[in-house]
Design brief:
single chain, 300 residues, mainly beta, Tie2 ligand-binding domain fold, 4 domains, two-stranded antiparallel ribbon, 32% strand, repeat, EGF-like domain, transmembrane, transmembrane helix, glycoprotein
């Protein structure tokens, strides 16, 4: 069969560009027009066969007539346009969005603008890699601590971390008589109603008594400054060299007079040993053996 050339309007209809405004632009991107020329396929009906005969002279009825149509296909180029986005300077494309780029990784924070990190609480610096000053806390470490007596504060919450010998929300109160140490949790070991130093727990002996716990009476009726000094070490610590006030602490204890227990993660004499327990296990502060958390076993 044969085909006829179609009018251009049948095959290459013009596709108008959609209206555009800056409000339609994605965030941190600018758009440019991009021309597309995909190959399109179209079809139309084409009459086939002989044309119908004309009306015979003297006749008022036309002869029988039928026209056969067949579908004819043709390919042509269809021109269309679409909006192409490009991220602005300092941004890159990720999952169909323009994301800010930071030259240095935000170690403890996130990139919120080109080369600008937003730090997590307790961290500061251009790349959020520095901890807060001990007397500052909060986002970018901009909030001052309100703690007293040399206390520092938690970099996340601002809660005061009291030094040994003090307690209270702002560490404004000394330990109650008979207690000492961090959080005033330790009990003084002094005898004869002697008071103890609220920071280290050293016994302040009354007249006529001496010793690490004020347990020894002064010899020959001496008292006060004339009372001979004894080794001040507590919990089995010894003075070394002899006739000095320098303590060698037994396992599990530390401090100038061996009055402070080893902190978490340390053990041994003077708490010089470092625990090697894993998965939440705690170690004995005397010998360092690991006590495993529920669900775990093994030496460490």
């Amino acid at each position: 069969f044969s085909s006829r050339r179609l009018p251009r309007s049948r095959f290459c209809s013009h596709m108008p560009r959609p209206p555009w405004s800056p409000a339609m632009e994605p965030s941190h991107a600018h758009g440019t027009g991009e021309r597309l020329s995909p190959l399109a396929r179209g079809s139309y009906w084409c009459p086939m066969g002989q044309p119908c005969p004309t009306l015979a002279q003297g006749s008022d009825r036309p002869p029988p007539c039928s026209v056969v149509y067949k579908t004819v296909y043709r390919q042509a180029v269809k021109v269309d346009y679409r909006r192409r986005y490009q991220c602005c300077q300092g941004y890159y494309e990720s999952r169909d969005a323009c994301v800010p780029r930071c030259t240095s990784e935000c170690v403890h924070g996130r990139c919120v603008a080109p080369d600008q990190c937003q730090c997590e609480r307790g961290w500061r610096g251009a790349d959020c890699s520095s901890t807060c000053d001990p007397h500052l806390w909060g986002p970018d470490c901009q909030s001052p601590c309100t703690c007293l007596n040399g206390a520092t504060c938690d970099p996340l919450s601002g809660a005061c971390l009291c030094p040994p010998g003090y307690q209270g929300l702002q560490c404004q109160m000394p330990c109650e008589p008979g207690t000492y140490g961090a959080g005033c949790q330790m009990q003084c070991q002094c005898e004869h109603r002697a008071l103890c130093d609220p920071e280290m727990g050293a016994c302040l002996c009354p007249p006529a008594f001496t010793g690490a716990h004020c347990e020894l009476p002064c010899a020959n009726g001496t008292e006060g400054q004339r009372c001979p000094e004894h080794c001040p070490c507590q919990h089995g610590g010894i003075c070394h060299p002899q006739d000095t006030q320098q303590c060698v602490c037994p396992p599990g204890w530390m401090g100038t007079i061996c009055s402070l227990p080893c902190p978490e993660g340390r053990f041994g004499s003077g708490c010089l040993g470092e625990c090697g327990c894993y998965n939440g296990g705690a170690c004995d502060r005397m010998q360092g053996q690991c006590r495993c958390a529920p669900g775990y076993t093994g030496k460490q």
